[in-house]
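Residues determine shape. We examine one folded chain.
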Amino acid sequence: MDKKSSCCCGALPAMWWWLLTLLGLPLLFLLMTGARQSVVEKDLTTRSEAALKAAGMDWAQVKLTQRGRDVLLSGSAASDEERLAALKMVQGVNGVRDVQNMIEVAAAPAPEPAQAAVAAEPVQAVASIDAPAPSKTPEFSLQSVGGKMVLQGVMGSQQEIDAALAAAQGVYGAGQVDNQLQLIEGVAPAAWLKDLAGLLPALQGLDNASLKVSAAGNSIGGQVPSDADKARVLDKARQLLGGAIADDLAVAAPKTPVPDSVTNAADPAQVAAEEKAVANCQQQLNDAMSGKTILFETNKSAIKQDSAALLESLVGIISTCKEVVTERGIQISGHTDNVGNDAYNQRLSQQRADAVKNYFIQKGVDGGLVKSVGFGESKPVAPNDNEADRSKNRRITFDINPE
């Protein structure tokens, strides 16, 4: 008797059935991933909204649809303080990875005109209604506040805000920039935005650096080491933003040489003891780093867990040498090998130095005593001819600052 075959299975060769099965597996994976993502987004939405409501900030809206763990925060706050408080509240929700703050600050309502004035001048009232609304212009400011660079101002699109933020983070590091830029509908495009990326590197290293760009006028400020540095920064700013720019740059006062009479009057024993304490602390840092290196994720500034013990030992040394560090300060320097372009290596070295500084601050070290600087590939300690030598150039160093 002939074997019976399925009316469906027998219609297609076995090879086609295998092909259909393989094509169905990715679809099944996407369905499962989407379902899981939906559960995570719903959970984070519920907990974020509950946290805002408990804090009396239920005017803020939370959106996570198709965003994974990244929250889009919107709404209208009565003040900048309320806007920042809502941002911090959602950032503190367990599981939230990033928060894009789109909350706007409501403008104070204009006082209503007196009834008598309206009745006395009806023609002017009609004219004011028909007059076109004033044009809104973009504004941008950058200022050093509490060890971080704070961005403020208004722009007409999220793309422009993202571009300005990326330019600042590329120079100072993602962890050192506080983005408070606001998205306002109707603001004209920022024609000068493309020049920010070229100007911001000129401000790096300036104490109390500041920059303001607006229709009302541009200004640049901070403390520069010399007149030559001031001229260089101003020339760069005028080249990119135009000639009309307010000069708020100050040249640091040169160190006054100590007269021989004062030097001779100093207690030699005290001077020797201070220098010995500085040398001892520097030696402890050098010994702790001897034959070791702080490890980061490849091409990133994220510190690997394997380096936790080394970092803890460095925090202990800084605590032991608190008096010396308080007096002199400490510099964290980031270095890379020569793989990649100069700008990328400089930015990566700065971000890694910033990451170590932030680790120290989280462990209780006073951030005002710590300076982080990225040198990129400019200061190699070995040739970049092979991987062994390149690994020596990828390093973080620590230096007690001289007086």
Observations:
- The chain has 13 helices and 15 strands.
- The two ends are 103 Å apart (CA to CA).
